[in-house]
Each structure stands twice: as C-alpha cells, then as structure tokens.
Backbone:
C-alpha cells in the first residue's frame, strides 16, 4: 500500500486533504468532526476585525457542475473567533483563516493572533490570509487586493508579527496570478492556496425573472472551475519555490492526483462535502491510496509536479 | 448518498398557491401545488426574490402544506401571497422523523381506519407552530395504523393551531397553555407528565417547538426510558452541508438534522444552552 502521509510547512499530516476555508468551520466542534471524518487538516471560516452577519440568503445556488456562493464573510469577529477556536487538542492541524480591508487591519489581526499564541491558549499550525473573495465589498477582489503590490505588503506585515507559517490564498481566475504568487513569495509567505472561487458569476431564475443569490452575484466553486485552477497551479508551480495548496472542484481521488501532478503539495476540499457528504475526506484519501498503489508510487509526494517532467 | 456534480439536485421550483387559510391572529396556512416526495420532519427552503430564503417545515405533501407565523420581513412577504400567486422553494432537505416499525405479523389488510389496530401509540409534543411537522407525522402514522396522542402547547388560547386537524385524524388531543386560558394550565412537559400520571403509555415521543421544551422533554423521556426524537432548529443558511451556520456541537442541523434522537440531542453541549446568530456568534441562555 502506498503511503498517503504527508508533510506540509513542517506540519505532519495523516493525508494531504484539507477542509477549505469558508466551508463549514464556524465552530471548533464542527472542525473536530471534519477531522474525525478524514481531513488531514482544517481551515476555519475567515475571521475579520468586525462582526459580520454576511449577505442575505440565498447564499448558495447550484449551477452546472458547481455552485455560486455569496456568504459575505459571515463571522463573529476575530476576538470571538479566536475564543471559539482556542484549546484545539486534535493531532490534525488547525489553520486559522483571516481577511481584512487593508494592510493596517491585517496587522491588528496578526497582533491579536500573536498575543493568543503567546498566552498558549491558541494552538494552530498556520495562518491563512485571503486576498481573493470575489463577492464581498471592501474585501478581496472587490477591493482590488489581488495585485503583486498589495500581496507583498500584506505578506510582509503578517510575517513581521506571526511566529507560525503563513499561507496566502488567491483566486485562480484573475489574470496576472503568477506575478501575485511571486510577490507573495517575496513577501515571505510560506505557501500559496490556489485557490478561492472564481468570478463573480450570476444565476437568474427565469420563472421569477430575478437573481437568485441575495447578493446578486457570487463565486463559482465545484468541478466547473477545476480546469482553471489546475492551470493556475501548474503556472505558479513553475514560478515559485514555496508549496501550493490546490483547491477547486476536487470531488474524487483522481481530481486530487491531477492537482498534485500540476504542482500542489496538498489539496483542499469544499463543495464536494455537498456531493459526497462530510465523509468526502476519507473517501478521497482512500481513492488516492488505491490509485497510487495501482500505479506503483510508494509515497504521495512522488507525484507532486509530475506533469512538469513530461 | 452520493450526488453527481453534473446533475443539479434540489433546483429551485416555482409552484402555484392553491389556497390560503388564516389559522389565528398571526399564522396562515398555504397549500402549494407540488408533488415533491418528502417525509415528516424534513423541510424546504422557501425563497422570496429580493427578500430572502428561509427553512420551513412541512405540514404535508401533495399539495405541500406550510403554516407560517408572521413574525418578520420574510414571513410578512409570504403572508402577502394570495391564491393563484406563486411560491418558490428547493428541497425537501434534511433528516426525517422515524416511526416505530409496525409489528411483523400485521398486514396492511388488518389495519383499520379507526386507528384501533393495537399497533401502539406515539406521543406528539408540539409547541406553538411546532405542531406543523407533527401533523404530517400523525397522517403518516395513521396510514400504517399507529395512533397519535398530541399535546398542543401554547402560551395562550389565541396561539393554538391545528386542534381540529388532529381531531379529524382521530388523534387524542391535550391542549396546554402557560396562562391556563385554555386546556391544561402548564407547559408541554407538565402536560406529558399529566398524561403519564393517568397511566398512558407511549412507544415513542416526537417533538418540535421551543428548544427548552424539547430539552426537558428529552430529559424526561430518558428518565422514563421512552425513545424520543426532536427537531433541532439553528440559524440555517445554505441548507446543504456547506456554510456551517447551523452547527450544533460537531453536527450541522441542515443535513445531519434537523431530526435527532433525544439522547443524541442531549449529548450536544449546546442543545438547550447555546444558539448562534447569523455571524456565528454565540447567544447563550436562550
């Protein structure tokens, strides 16, 4: 049997699957449950400086081979959020996701996290900062944050304060992502998550002659976006040395293998928790193990970037 | 169950409103022309364009039956609907109440319509408009010859709904009101204790309504060793196991629930103690 154990940013993982940020992840209990059901690591819902109720419902609508979502960064704010996620005891790593309106806000978030880490109350393996939400005013793509200049500044500001690894998340659908990835690396971040949903897109209900999502538009997730994210992972892998989390439409073990061959070291899963239930993490892990064994790869890391060798 | 990403599931449906009936000062019942297959305890996500989307439990199917209290912007928009208008929704979603299995030796032929087939009796405990899914359950129970005794618990006489609906099904009904303005004066759980003290026995109890009512009912059922199932409500947004807003401990109400056994619900540290608002912030001591 091939070994599915992996190491990422110096963190040992039982398998390369990670719960993508924004998917479930509101409570510590829920994240523990996702670990029990197979995830190698989990990322919380993104925390912001302010308390956010998020956008009006519907926040999700199904489209062909995917979903549009416009959650709008619903979260109880950094203070309540860090309280919620404190006292993590499981061996799977907890990664805390944060997002902010500007570099100054990012610095404040980093100060708060660093203080909790110092107190010893918060145990988390890494921090993920998100530059790429396509549907929330003042944040991410709607604030024009996915540029090399902003990415580098945010990375530098966070790295100056955080004693743990930093991951930065981008959306694969925006031109110039290779330059953004290089800037993230220059800024000192330790990994890149590719990535967020793409878009925004829109769904109109023709019977009601109305936009379905409460916010009107939302980010596209699921198998429909997978080829775009795979291409982005492939291009970024050629251009930077830091590891990549591949994310977007991973539903079966073969999707995960494809991302890793494009250059991802680990893979994150979100929408598939709808198609295949929360057990999707253990299902995908088993499918990966079977495929690797059948193809005579002793270790899962052997396939990282394999598509670049041919 | 696994779903094929290439085939959309639970797409938004738009169906005609067949009838609108006023139940009391704030609740209206809507019958919707739809043939979706659903089980008691499941819910649909009702969408009003440019207003929002909310989970609503079903009082029946074919036609869909919804009873909705006018308590805010969304339900106010639903209350504007007239016969012949349309309503949009997706579903059914979530888990359902499970009825006790009919005894093996009983055939359909032996089940008579007066509900006196001796297959057993279940207890339905509804608080306020929590009676709605229990009415659906009573209808399904009757089809397989199980009798239902119903407690309709309300704050005051004006809040009682569905009394006649249950009586027309042949259910025994006990009304309880907090202020004693009708029926037994006391809360739902005191009503249950009253029935038990009269020597009534139940194979299983089912409940939907305020969480503290269900919490104390689940505790009482555990003490009396009566299996029980409760419908747990949390702030629900996506309805499909993704957004995580409806977490209760590790489980998500929208897809792991809303129906849980009483003992499972009691195992949640947050059941009866903590809810969360739209941001995920804790609201304690509700």
Residues:
């Amino acid at each position: 049997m091939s070994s599915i154990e992996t190491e990422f940013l110096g963190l040992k993982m039982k398998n390369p699957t990670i719960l993508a940020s924004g998917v479930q992840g509101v409570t510590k209990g829920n994240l523990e449950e996702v670990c029990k059901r197979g995830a190698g690591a989990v990322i919380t819902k993104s925390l912001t400086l302010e308390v956010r109720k998020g956008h009006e419902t519907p926040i999700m609508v199904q489209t062909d081979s995917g979903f549009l979502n416009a959650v709008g960064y619903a979260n109880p704010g950094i203070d309540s959020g860090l309280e919620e996620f404190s006292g993590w005891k499981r061996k799977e790593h907890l990664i805390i996701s944060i997002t902010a309106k500007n570099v100054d806000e990012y610095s404040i978030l980093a100060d708060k996290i660093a203080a909790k880490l110092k107190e010893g109350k918060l145990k988390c393996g890494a921090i993920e900062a998100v530059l790429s939400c396509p549907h929330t005013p003042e944040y991410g793509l709607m604030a024009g944050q996915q540029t090399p200049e902003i990415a580098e500044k945010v990375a530098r500001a966070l790295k100056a304060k955080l004693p743990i690894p930093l991951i930065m998340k981008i959306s694969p659908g925006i031109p110039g992502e290779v330059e953004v990835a290089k800037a993230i690396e220059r800024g000192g971040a330790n990994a890149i998550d590719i990535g967020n949903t793409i878009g925004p897109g829109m769904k109109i209900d023709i019977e009601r002659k109305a936009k379905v999502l409460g916010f009107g538009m939302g980010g596209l997730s699921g198998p429909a976006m997978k080829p775009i994210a795979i291409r982005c992972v492939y291009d970024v892998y050629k251009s930077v040395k830091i590891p990549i989390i591949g994310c977007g439409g991973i539903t079966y073990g073969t999707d995960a293998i494809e991302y890793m061959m494009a250059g991802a070291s680990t893979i994150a899963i979100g929408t598939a928790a709808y198609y295949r239930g929360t057990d999707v993490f253990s299902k995908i892990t088993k499918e990966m193990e079977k495929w690797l064994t059948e193809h005579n790869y002793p270790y899962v890391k052997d396939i990282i970037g394999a598509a670049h060798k041919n | 169950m696994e779903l094929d990403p290439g085939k959309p599931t639970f797409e938004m449906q738009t169906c005609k409103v067949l009838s609108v009936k006023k139940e009391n000062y704030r609740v209206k019942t809507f019958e919707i022309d739809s043939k979706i297959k659903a089980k008691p305890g499941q819910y649909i996500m009702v969408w009003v364009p440019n207003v929002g989307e909310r989970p609503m439990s079903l009082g029946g199917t074919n036609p869909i039956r919804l009873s909705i209290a006018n308590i805010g912007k969304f339900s106010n928009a639903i209350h504007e609907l007239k016969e012949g208008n349309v309503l949009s929704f997706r579903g059914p979603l979530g888990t359902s109440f499970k009825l006790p299995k009919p005894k093996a030796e009983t055939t359909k032929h032996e089940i008579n319509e007066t509900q006196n087939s001796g297959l057993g009796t279940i207890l339905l405990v509804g608080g306020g408009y929590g009676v709605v899914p229990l009415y659906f359950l009573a209808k399904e129970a009757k089809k397989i010859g199980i009798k239902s005794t119903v407690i309709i618990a309300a704050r005051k006489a004006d809040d009682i709904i569905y009394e006649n609906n249950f009586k027309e099904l042949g259910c025994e009904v006990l009304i309880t009101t907090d202020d004693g303005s009708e029926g037994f004066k006391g809360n739902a759980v005191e009503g249950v204790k009253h029935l038990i003290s009269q020597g009534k026995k139940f194979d299983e109890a089912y409940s939907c309504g305020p969480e503290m009512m269900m919490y104390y009912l689940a505790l009482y059922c555990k003490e009396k060793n009566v299996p029980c199932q409760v419908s747990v409500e949390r702030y629900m947004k996506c309805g499909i196991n993704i957004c995580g807003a409806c977490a209760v401990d590790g489980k998500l109400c929208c897809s792991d629930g809303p129906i849980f056994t009483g003992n499972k619900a009691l195992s949640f540290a947050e059941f009866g103690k903590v809810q969360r608002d739209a941001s995920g912030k804790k609201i304690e001591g509700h």
Observations:
- Helices of chain B lie at 73-79, 131-143, 163-168, 188-197, 211-224, 262-267.
- Chain B has a mean pLDDT of 93.
